[in-house]
Amino acid sequence: MVSVIPVKRPRTAVREEAGMVTAEAAAVLPLVAIFALAMVWLLSVGMTQVRVVDAARDAARAVARGDPDDQAIVAARRTAGADARVGIHRAAGLVTVTVLEQARAPGWLLVPLPAVAIRSQSTVEVEDAPTGR
Fold first, then answer.
1. What is the pTM of this model?
2. CA of 27: how far to CAs of 34, 38, 57, in Å?
3. What is the per-residue pLDDT across 54-84, written as a single tens digit (0 to 9) for each?
4. Are 80 and 10 in contact (CB under 8 A)?
5. What is the separation of C-alpha 59 from the centre of its chain, rounded to a whole number of angstroms?
């Protein structure tokens, strides 16, 4: 005769902890959303910084090789953005171009984030300037 010994299974706390995952997710999801918005904002600022640096460099090269200031300003605004402010300064055989642009959050974020002023300056030696030799 085979005897069957009943085995007591430990009680699981499934019913008591069933709502814990939902509560934890509800607490963490807003933080994840804020983090994602911050990353998109930082990416937007970084892209604007790269465009402004490129615009200042390109405009300084153009002026240094003899292109008119108006063409250099148009080229800088084409790279940095139509709202960019471009300044050209000449001194001692050098040309300095300063580009200033406001980095704004993408419109699709639906969250008002502050604009950040991005500024870049590039100085290049004028190609046909007398060297004094």
1. 0.71
2. 12, 18, 47
3. 999 999 999 999 899 999 999 999 999 889 9
4. no
5. 22
